[in-house]
């Protein structure tokens, strides 16, 4: 896997605060306890995203600049870490924030190249995940569903989980990965580079 260098860029809670749309952007979305920060840190090889024991800590869109060399002045792409959804205590306040900055980002951002919809591969397909996929489809957004925490599944359970998620979320393409073991990260990076180049 190619070494990448990442740097926290900014947090935005309104479209006016988004970085200038000059680079391909890769968005990471998922339920509050899906392991989004762990996956981001595993991809970046450093602790950039804050991993919290309390779900729903990310309340803004956090942007990170990504390069393949520390000397490179211009980033090659941005990663966008979006607030988690579906956590009971916070879901109302997060729902209220969607129209303010999350929806405009997903609907209107011209440089958004790919959305990763992260789902927990250990639980059945969730209604909130299906709603997110429906939303992205309605705006013709390119997305890929990634099942996290796959290290907790044995071979047969992994095959079954993959089939259940494909069927329940009505998707063809679905990757399973693990932040702990690194399984599937190479495939995630392949999808990122492909989307960024196109």
Automatic annotation (TrEMBL):
<keyword id="KW-0717">Septation</keyword>
<dbReference type="GO" id="GO:0046872">
    <property type="term" value="F:metal ion binding"/>
</dbReference>
<keyword id="KW-0479">Metal-binding</keyword>
<dbReference type="InterPro" id="IPR030393">
    <property type="entry name" value="G_ENGB_dom"/>
</dbReference>
<keyword id="KW-0547">Nucleotide-binding</keyword>
<keyword id="KW-0132">Cell division</keyword>
<comment type="similarity">
    <text>Belongs to the TRAFAC class TrmE-Era-EngA-EngB-Septin-like GTPase superfamily. EngB GTPase family.</text>
</comment>
<feature type="domain" description="EngB-type G">
    <location>
        <begin position="22"/>
        <end position="198"/>
    </location>
</feature>
<dbReference type="GO" id="GO:0000917">
    <property type="term" value="P:division septum assembly"/>
</dbReference>
<dbReference type="Pfam" id="PF01926">
    <property type="entry name" value="MMR_HSR1"/>
</dbReference>
<dbReference type="InterPro" id="IPR006073">
    <property type="entry name" value="GTP-bd"/>
</dbReference>
<protein>
    <recommendedName>
        <fullName>Probable GTP-binding protein EngB</fullName>
    </recommendedName>
</protein>
<dbReference type="GO" id="GO:0005829">
    <property type="term" value="C:cytosol"/>
</dbReference>
<dbReference type="InterPro" id="IPR027417">
    <property type="entry name" value="P-loop_NTPase"/>
</dbReference>
<comment type="function">
    <text>Necessary for normal cell division and for the maintenance of normal septation.</text>
</comment>
<dbReference type="InterPro" id="IPR019987">
    <property type="entry name" value="GTP-bd_ribosome_bio_YsxC"/>
</dbReference>
<keyword id="KW-0460">Magnesium</keyword>
<keyword id="KW-0342">GTP-binding</keyword>
<keyword id="KW-0131">Cell cycle</keyword>
<dbReference type="GO" id="GO:0005525">
    <property type="term" value="F:GTP binding"/>
</dbReference>
